[in-house]
Design brief:
heterodimer; A: 306 residues; mainly alpha; MetI-like fold; two-stranded antiparallel sheet; 4% strand; disordered N terminus; B: 299 residues; globular
């Protein structure tokens, strides 16, 4: 029922009856490992509903992982009083939607141009884009803070364009640098290559422009590629931390992960810590559980291409 | 159609469309990747600060000399990052393969287990680090487990406040957090190995170990290279775990290169010096990836 269709082992029907009785020992290691992976999050959800004193007391027994004792949503109320958590959530959702949305457009167009069009400079462009894959973001992050602090921007004040300097403390500094992504372009280009070239030629004969071919033929045929890129983009942006702590000081523009900093110095208020971390983790986990097959195959495709 | 601009090849609409469609990505890369890389090179030989009224001046190799001779925190960060990488690459890679072999069986409900093992991968590292900070603290979950299992005979330490256990504790937590990702990568590698090879091995009377050594492992070679390179790069970028759990302490026992670069470049605003540290870090990643690529080339 839930077995993977791609699973390598093929069960032998002739052995079924005897095998079924011996199948349960195979679950022992699986369950043991599952406990190792799930206990911190289980502890987090349960503790978010308990008062601090009880969290520390429950640590000594299995009660730490059970919804027992004095349960309430007091920790959540305290968190929402202290931290503008909903505002942070709205900021993160906005930034994620922008990076994923613009990223899908910009990177799929580049992937199309690199995989299906013949133009001078294509080879060079492709090698430059692949070369950027070896630069970890962390190596350029600090000089980039200096750089974005100097970048200009045009702002409209009463419909009059004015030139301003500096991208610090804006939404754009959280969005624009992360739209173009070499790995996304690479995944799109790989996928587009698998679509028969004859479709383009037929459409060209009918007088379609290259842009129409991209929009009307290639994009509708590439749903899986778009889903993979959306998932692979969504996760790091939702979880981004290093960049926003450096470039966003203004509270109203902060994303959810940065909100955890409010609790760094409050080690006694573990109930509130658990409530806030649950609050920012539940949306991702729900998303993951609903689309888990797509998540796992996206990650796997990332590996196979490497 | 436009008339030919260059004599031997017409500037077709295909040519123009290619440029136009790649332009947005190209401009963004130029601004937010290529420029910062060049800036890292330039700023690393200056004393520029994040915000300063004074113009920066050229310092030559002073920043690099300072890093290796006058900055014990940098040397500690280099040492910790290298130890972390050397331990976690085989640890996480090996555990990932073990999990992939465990999960690659055809039994009811196996997908549910795969999903559970993958949960830490989708959870943010900041959240996981906060949870493990609690698990590792003196009166936390780990110590209570240790004293329960041994009936009070053994008691743990304050893992993150002890110079000899802080880094190992971060290594163990990081392997736990990242292993699900590599399990999935190994699993997709395992599933590319044709079933017929295992059938042939069965006919030849191979033991399970022989099947692993002569069928599974050779078939996993391309996956192995990918796993090696990705864990290594992620290991060198270690930052959030020490920031949240220890802030580099105790006594620099867990400070890492990226943490140190952020502390000097951002908190202390010494952008020039931080650029030099970033450049050393980049060269380290580059050299290690090139060596790995050379070593893992087909024999």
């Amino acid at each position: 029922m839930t077995t993977s269709p791609t699973s390598r082992q093929i069960s032998d029907p002739t052995h079924r009856p005897s095998r079924r009785s011996r199948v349960w020992p195979r679950y022992i290691p699986l369950v043991g490992v599952a406990i190792v992976f799930i206990f911190p999050l289980l502890f987090m959800f349960m503790s978010s509903l308990k008062p601090d004193a009880q969290i520390l007391a429950d640590v000594r027994s299995f009660r730490a992982f059970l919804p027992v004792g004095e349960l309430s949503t007091d920790n959540y109320s305290a968190v929402f009083d202290r931290v503008p958590a909903w505002r942070f959530m709205a900021n993160t959702i906005f930034v994620v939607a922008m990076v994923v949305g613009f990223g899908l457009i910009v990177n799929s167009m580049a992937g199309f141009a690199l995989s299906r069009l013949q133009w001078r400079g294509r080879g060079i462009a492709l090698s430059i884009i692949l070369a950027t894959l070896i630069v970890p973001f962390e190596t350029i992050a600090v000089p980039m803070v200096w750089w974005v602090a100097k970048l200009p921007w045009i702002e409209f004040q009463d419909f009059i364009p004015t030139l301003t300097t500096g991208w610090l403390n804006t939404y754009r500094v959280q969005i624009i640098p992360f739209i173009a992504n070499a790995f996304s372009i690479f995944l799109f280009a790989q996928y587009f290559k698998s679509i028969p070239k004859e479709l383009d030629e037929a459409a060209r004969v009918d007088g379609a422009s290259w842009f129409t071919i991209y929009r009307k033929i290639i994009v509708p045929l590439s749903g899986p590629a778009f889903a993979t890129v959306a998932i692979l983009t969504f996760l790091p942006v939702w979880n981004s931390f290093l960049w926003p702590i450096m470039v966003v000081q203004q509270e109203a523009l902060r994303p959810v992960q940065v909100g955890v900093q409010y609790f760094f110095q409050l080690e006694t208020a573990w109930g509130e810590v658990m409530a806030y971390t649950s609050f920012i983790t539940i949306p991702v986990l729900l998303f993951f559980l609903v689309f888990q097959r797509a998540f796992v195959s996206s990650i796997a495709s990332a590996g196979v291409k490497g | 159609m436009l008339t030919a601009i260059r004599p031997h090849r017409p500037a077709s609409t295909e040519e123009r469309t290619g440029w136009v469609m790649v332009a947005p990505a190209a401009i963004l890369f130029a601004l937010f990747l290529i420029t910062p890389v060049i800036l890292t090179l330039i700023l690393s030989v200056t004393n520029v600060r994040l915000i300063s009224p004074n113009p920066p001046s050229f310092q030559g190799v002073d920043n690099f000399v300072r890093a290796f001779t006058a900055d014990p925190t940098f040397l500690a960060s280099l040492r910790n990052t290298l130890i972390f990488a050397v331990v976690i690459v085989p640890l996480q890679g090996g555990l990932g393969l073990g999990l992939a072999l465990l999960i690659n069986q055809k039994i009811r409900g196996i997908n549910a287990f795969r999903t559970i093992y993958f949960v830490p991968v989708v959870t943010s590292m900041v959240v996981l680090s906060m949870l493990w900070k609690f698990i590792y603290q003196a009166d936390g979950l780990l110590n209570s487990l240790i004293s329960t299992v041994t009936f009070g005979a053994l008691s743990g330490t304050d893992w993150l406040n002890n110079t000899s256990t802080a880094l190992p504790a971060i290594i163990a937590m990081s392997a736990w957090a990242g292993v699900g990702f590599h399990m999935v990568i190994w699993l997709s590698g395992l599933q590319t190995i044709p079933e017929s090879l295992y059938e042939a091995a069965d006919l030849d009377g191979c033991s399970p170990w022989q099947k692993f050594a002569f069928v599974t492992w050779p078939g996993l070679r391309p996956t192995f290279v990918f796993v090696l390179v990705t864990i290594t790069i992620a290991a060198f970028s270690l930052f959030i775990q020490p920031l949240v759990m220890t802030n580099g302490g105790p006594l620099n026992a867990t400070v890492t290169i990226v943490l140190h670069a952020v502390n000097t470049g951002f908190s202390k605003q010494q952008t020039g010096y931080a650029a030099a540290i970033s450049l050393i870090f980049f060269l380290l990643v580059l050299v290690v990836s090139l060596i790995q690529r050379r070593l893992t080339k087909e024999d």
